[in-house]
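Q: What would this chain look like folded?
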Amino acid sequence: MKEEFNYSKAIAELEKIAAEVEDPSVDLDKMDSALKRSSELVEQCRAYLRSAREKLDALV
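A: My prediction, written as C-alpha cells:
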C-alpha cells in the first residue's frame, strides 16, 4: 500500500536537504542524490497544490 502524500513532511524533508547540501563537506555523490530527491519532492508538492487549487475552484 502506497503512503499518502504529506505536504508538511515533504516541505520538512526539503528543508533538511537544503541544510545538508549547504555543508561544504558534502560530497558530490550525496549532493547529486539530494538534488534528485529534491526534484521529486518539488514535483509532488506542485501536483498537490494544483490539486488543492482545482478542488477550491470547483467549490467556488
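DSSP finds two helices and no strands in the chain.
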